[in-house]
Design goal:
The chain has helices spanning 28-43, 61-66, 76-82, 117-121, 123-136, 184-187, 191-198, 230-247, 255-265, 310-316, and strands at residues 8-17, 21-22, 90-93, 101-102, 107-115, 145-153, 162-171, 174-179, 207-216, 219-220, 223-224, 269-284, 288-302, 332-337. The chain is α+β, with helices and mostly antiparallel strands. The chain has two domains: 2-187, no CATH class; 191-337, Alpha-Beta Plaits (2-Layer Sandwich). The protein has a six-stranded antiparallel sheet with strand order 3-5-1-6-7-8. A four-stranded antiparallel sheet has the order 12-13-9-14, with helices on one face. β7 and β8 (174-179) form a beta hairpin.
């Protein structure tokens, strides 16, 4: 299937604060601003950096990864879904670190998921951009940090598998971030890993629990969803995977493969719900103050046999779903399946 060709890499950046700073409780917006600014510094070919959207996305690595243009050759159904905003090839996650003050020397971390071959080949440039941006100051608050270690996490976060890509090593009486040798094939993963994980269940899976770690905001028939009914959640996930596959090089995920998943999802019932709506406020020069909200918490589901849904659900854990996923929203975790 086409989705097999959509490869991901999960990078964990371990940081050390250089100077004490007050920081936002929800750090996704700060991380996104910093990432985009310093990646445009590396990749923007214009004499003056583009400040209001990429002006040459077809020829610019920054544009292709962070602000991809609509390609008329993409399938019409996917173009209707995305409108004029194709998804970027990344998702950020602040690990739910809600501290609002970081003392000098404090450790903190964040995760960056990259999607598609072009983004994966740019891992060294991404790390270099984060390193430079962290030292010069992130976001409006100018949080100054240094990169202590960069690791590629295994696709299954529960097994703890990871590979060190770079870490601080002694150099000329000091420390410097030093690359370790790695092969891209060793750090990349995709839908096939989800299939293998789902294959570990010996029999039918009748029950499933999802923990929504950051606000999930999705629509069903034009209305915002307030409870985590499984059908709308699965529709949002399928939509996310379809668009990422088309935009970032894997090709169209055929309806014959994802359609039956949505049919099955409609039969799955919400058995127990311990979610609630929460939100926070972000500030944007373009739109001013913006309220970010969605449901978080844990939900339990039941159905005849949920195994066909598991590979896509597994993969979606690292890609997020719904509105404002680029800020770290829509992150969820499969807690168990029985």
């Amino acid at each position: 299937m086409a989705l097999d060709e959509l490869r991901l890499a999960r990078l964990r950046f371990e940081m050390e604060t250089l100077a004490a700073s007050d920081v936002p409780a929800f750090k996704g917006d700060m991380l996104r601003m910093a990432l985009l600014w310093w990646l445009s510094e590396y990749w923007c070919p214009m004499p003056q950096r583009c400040r209001h959207g990429c002006r040459a996305p077809a020829a610019c690595t920054f544009g292709q990864i962070c602000e991809p243009p609509v390609d008329p050759s993409w399938p019409a159904a996917e173009r209707r879904l995305m409108g004029d905003t194709p998804p970027p090839a990344y998702a950020l996650w602040d690990g739910r670190d809600r501290r609002t003050h970081l003392a000098a020397g404090a450790n903190w971390a964040f995760e960056l998921t990259l999607a598609g071959e072009l983004a994966l080949r740019q891992i060294p440039a991404v790390v270099a951009a984060v390193q430079q941006g962290a030292e010069e100051g992130m976001g409006r608050i100018r949080l100054q940090s240094r990169v202590v270690r960069v690791a590629a996490l295994g696709g299954n976060g529960q097994d703890g598998a990871e590979a060190c890509l770079a870490d601080q090593q002694p150099h000329e009486g000091g420390q410097t971030l030093t690359w370790q040798s790695y092969r891209l094939d060793d750090v990349a993963f995709g839908y096939g890993r989800g299939v293998a994980w789902a294959g570990g269940f010996a029999g039918p899976v009748h029950h499933l629990s999802l923990r929504y770690l950051s606000p999930v905001k999705i629509k069903e028939r034009g209305e915002w969803v307030e409870a985590p009914e499984f059908g709308p959640v699965m529709k949002a996930l399928v939509r996310r995977l379809r668009l990422l596959s088309v935009v970032h090089g894997a090709g169209e995920w055929p309806h014959a493969e994802w359609g039956p998943l949505l049919d099955l999802a409609e039969t799955v019932r919400l058995e127990h719900d311990e979610t609630h709506v929460m939100g926070y406020e972000r500030h944007s020069k373009a739109s001013g103050r913006q309220e970010i909200e969605g449901f978080v918490g844990q939900a339990w589901y039941a159905g005849a046999d949920l195994r066909p849904l598991l590979p896509a659900l597994w993969l979606g854990q690292w890609l997020h779903l719904g509105k404002n996923y680029v800020l770290g929203n829509g992150r969820y975790q499969i807690v168990d399946g029985k």
